[in-house]
Amino acid sequence: MQTTYIFGHKKPDTDSVCSSICLSYLKNKLGENTEPRVLGDLNKETKFVLESFGFKEPEFLNDVKVQIKDMHYEKNARLEEHESIYKAYRYLMECGYTGLPLVNKKNELTGYVNVKEISKYLIDGDMNYLHTSYDNILATLSAKAILRFDNVIEGKIMAAAFKSETFIEQINLDNHDILIVGDRYKIMEYAVQSGIKLLILVNSMELPNELLEIAKKNKVNVVSVPLGTYKCANMVRLCNYVQMINVTETPISFSVYDYRNDFIDISNKYGHTNYPIVNKRNECLGMMRLIDQNDFERKKVILVDHNQSAQSVDGIEEAEIVEVVDHHNLGTIGTTAPINFRSMPVGCTCTLLYKLFQEANVEIPKNIAGLMLSAILSDTMLYKSPTTTELDVKTGEKLAEIAELDSYNYGIQMFKAASSIAGMSISDIVNSDIKSFRVDEDTSLSIGQVFTMDFEELSKKQDEIVSLLTTMKKMGNLKLVLLFVTDIIKNGSYLYYSEGADDFVMEAYDLKEVVQGIYLDGAVSRKKQMLPPMLETLERRG
User: Fold this and answer.
1) How many domains are there within the chain?
2) Residue 438 is assigned to a structural domain of this protein
3) What is the mean pLDDT of residues 245-267?
């Protein structure tokens, strides 16, 4: 069963991470195969939560682009380089392939052979040379083994076409020769006495006993074939190792982790028909045929706590989105088929998940309840956020009972763990939870939010913060970048913004004057109090 990945947005917060873990638990209880993932580094709060309830951080998901491993390719389509040319040809014909990767005994990619090179070899190849194994000779010529002293046979091929006397007088035989002979006793005797490498007896001939003893003494390899001299002479060179007609020792290959788009680009550039597929150890797993490039399986994903492409994983357009569970406004995510889309105007995705557990009649374990409660307390800021609904509060109370926790005391511990900025750079602070939003095709903005109970310490680095926000605006081609520093206890936020945005900030938040670090009482929700006024202002100004 294909694994379905469940993940939140690119700037993981407690709700997105806990929702991924909890929904994956629910889905797996219902018989599905899912795994939670994250798209970025976890913040201090989320790490505190996971440690508190004994969960490991979900694995990082770099992208969901279609990879070679998601595509159909001819698995195990390869040939050991010491197989015969004849076997290679038969394999190609039986499978309908035009070529095959070659591998060594360790299955490492060593080359490539194709029908064109086999044809060329049959016409232009050296008819008088053989380098192969004794077994290849038996298999290719349907031969019977009579004497075997060497596993590898190499030498010059000749057929006894002259009269016996003429042959013996004119041909000097040694242990590098391979002789094809019929019922010519004197030539057989001459051959075994000369200690040739291999004697091939045609028409199923047997070697007389007295000559057999001489052959044994001189270690002459002997086989008997059912073929006539002419057919044998034509077939014997097909016993050669297929590596003799290797097209290239370094063929263009692809890793199973390479992307489909890269495969298409490279195959368009080189125009080859087949490409070997390898793993990280250069072991050949099979072969991708150009005609199979459109036969692939998209990665299945479930999105939680977001539904905007800009906030989602790279390559989301190549994935199959099977479900979305979110509590934000509708974004830019699109699908090609109907999906399960669960959305409610509540303060936290985990409030929705609680309902899903109820509907599925699945009991919520203590540790899962702890994660879901943590997410609700985080997103509603201890139920003080204007996004908080009665359902969030009731759900939080029920989860606190299951987790055996005091919501307020636990929440304060969680926020204290999250709000410490000791040892963090300004870049780390600003980027710890920042999201981008698109107003129209030409206008985008970013809003970051950080929670701290030590604003005075942060305010000492005001110039550095503003400089970074301004740089981010220029680098990202954004209209403006805002950072809200939220104090949970005071229930408000201090606002920093990129240079040149004074008018926008004043108009958006209805201020008579504005300075960097201005305190906005009651402004704690990015979704309801920070983003909407700015979007409205930008839309008015066009």
Assistant:
1) 3
2) yes
3) 92
